[in-house]
Amino acid sequence: MTKNDITRNIELWKSTGHFISFGPFGHKIFVREVGHSDAPSKRTLLLVHGFPESSYSFHRVLDGLTRLFDRIILFDLLGYGLSDKPKENYTYSLMEQADIVLTVWNHFKIKGGHVLSHDMGDSVVTEIVARHVHDVLPSWFSDGIQSLTFTNGSMILDLAALRITQKILLSRFGKYMGKIVSFGIFRQQVKSAHGNDNLNEDEIQMLWAFNQLQEGHRKTYLTIRYLNDRKRFEKTRWLPALSKTDLPVHICWGDADQVARVEMAHTLKKDVCPHAELTIMSGLGHFCQLGNPGKWLEYVGAFYQEN
What we know:
Layout (H helix, E strand, L loop, with lengths): L2 H13 L2 E5 L4 E9 L8 E5 L13 H4 L5 E5 L18 H14 L4 E7 L1 H14 L10 E8 L12 H7 L3 H7 L2 H12 L6 H12 L7 H4 L2 H19 L4 E6 L7 H11 L4 E5 L6 H4 L1 H14 L1
Parallel strand pairs: 3-4, 3-5, 5-6, 6-7, 7-8
Antiparallel strand pairs: 1-2, 2-4
């Protein structure tokens, strides 16, 4: 893929959405709506991407999802993709990312919908679930969450096999790692995390390109600190909320993932959310919707067709 191809892909994706303002500093958040704005909540899908990704990570499955839903909402979390990437004194708290999720949904006048998340997005969504369980979601979200689908995220941090770069970024040397990170390092870590060879080079280049916007690749030592929030709130707030929720839950996991390994999905089903439906996506890696979009759609779609 040439530089011109990459630039064209970014500009084309950007042209399909727009920006909204968030917070006291007016940070810009990229948002996109696909389909009919008057679709009911039961026909609406709300997507939340992972780290180090963006809404573009769903580009290979978007057409397929439009055959399952009449309305789809995508956006880039703060620090990712086309959204603003504040400087080094910013915390990138998962609590604030959850606030951004709600701000985006409110912007589109979303009253409810099915929620599908990936990787870090799983952690953001578990905070939304905690607010649901504690009955503190805003009143305009009156139809509520129709169902939850979690895909390949480190929801049980003790079971996560973090890559060496992730560990360095989380350490006191993380800022320096951010200064020397290159496409070669990024590529190796993405392939290592993914777990098999079905993630093509073009997709890795696009992941990198969206990371580079606003020098985002220099700030991953900040955005990855969401894992510190995971450590702090996982056992006291997020997993207990998931265990208490009466919402339909789908745990949908690629079994080749080398970071959020498949043992995590089985543990979530067995020890946290026994009423959840568990789907193991055979042969799919961490970046499952990019690596094998056809099979991903089959696995994900089966749940929605049943519910």
